[in-house]
Amino acid sequence: MKEEELLKKWLLDRLSAEEQKSFMQSAEYSRLIKIWDGLPEVATPPQLDIEHELQRFRSVHHANTKTRVVKVSWGQRLIGIAASLVIVSVLSYLLFNETFDGSTSVTLAESHVELFLPDSSVVVLNKGSELAYNEESWSDHRVVRLEGEGYFQVNKGSTFDVATSDGVVSVLGTSFNVKQRDQVYEIVCFEGKVGVKTNNHQADLIAGQGFQLIEGDTTAFKIGFKDEPDWMNGKSTFYKIPYHAVLSELENQYDVKVEARDLNIQNTFSGSFPNDNLEIALDAVTTPSGYQYQVNENIVLIFSAAN
User: Which range, of 51-60, 84-93, 190-199, 237-246, averages the lowest pLDDT?
Assistant: First the structure.
């Protein structure tokens, strides 16, 4: 019996004694248990189509790593809750943390970069972002790994996954933006519909809707109807983002080092700044809060006028 069939029967607690013995000696079982042992506990797992996710899990992962065998008996409680948690966490772990086997294309954007993927889908990377994908297996598995921020225009076809360290965005054909930087995970849908899966949350977004995961807290918001993210038109926009993340983006766009003195950088900021004029950008992020700034070459000091 194929390993994927044994895996399905094991999740449903339907293995015979002989099948159980065979499966527990397999590399697939060892690999799954090792990953499970290293995953954090999650209070509210999303609901998934188990059969569908198992197929995707098996297709993405082909490693044959040996590790210790741990006896685990989960039984029927995997259905609906534990199974969903295992599969989502494993998918996120494999898609982001594992090295893409075969021919992998990696791009690090020093400025805005437009890339055409093998299926003619388009991704525009924001400055300081990195994208990786497997060229050899692209026709079977449309999966990219993203660090930073990217705007995607996905051609229709098989499921398209964008994996980050905080979650996975899955679509069939649509336009959306994904940002994962400085403890901020944000997805905005511009056309069609996208599904977002994190370790403890699942959301479906349609055009004009956004989703944020910031330091464990989730927020849904609306942006109105736009064709593309503001950063593609030279402006960084924020919706209730921690001030430290705003300053981090300022550093990324202008290649400066920002030092905050006696400020509560956990306070949230909503607004925008241009990506081509440092002085105007600094005014935009300091004036609303009554802060002041000083610039010395590539060092920016931001401080409270009250001090």
Answer: 84-93
The pLDDT tens digits for 15-71 are 677 777 776 777 666 666 655 555 444 444 444 454 554 555 445 444 333 322 333
Q: Name the CA radius of gyration of the chain, rounded.
A: 22
Contacts of 118 (CB under 8 A, 6+ apart): 135, 138, 139
CA distance 113 to 108: 9
CA distance linking residue 11 with residue 142, whole number of Å: 26
CA distances from 265 to 160, 213, 258, 269, 298 (A): 36, 17, 12, 10, 20
Rounded distance between C-alpha atoms, residue 293 and residue 280, angstroms: 12
The torsion angles phi and psi of 4, rounded to 5 degrees, stand at -65, -30
Q: Rounded distance, CA 201 to CA 193, Å?
A: 17
Q: What is the pTM of this model?
A: 0.66
Q: For the segment 272-305, what is each residue's pLDDT rounded down to a tens digit?
A: 999 999 999 999 999 998 999 999 999 999 998 7
Tokens in use for 32? 């799954």
Q: Cβ contacts of residue 104 below 8 Å, gap of 6+?
A: 132, 133, 134, 135
For 251-297, the DSSP string reads HHHHT-EEEEES--TTSEEEEEEESS-HHHHHHHHHGGGTEEEEEET
Degrees, nearest 5: CA angle 169-234-105: 45
* β 257-261/299-304 pair status: parallel
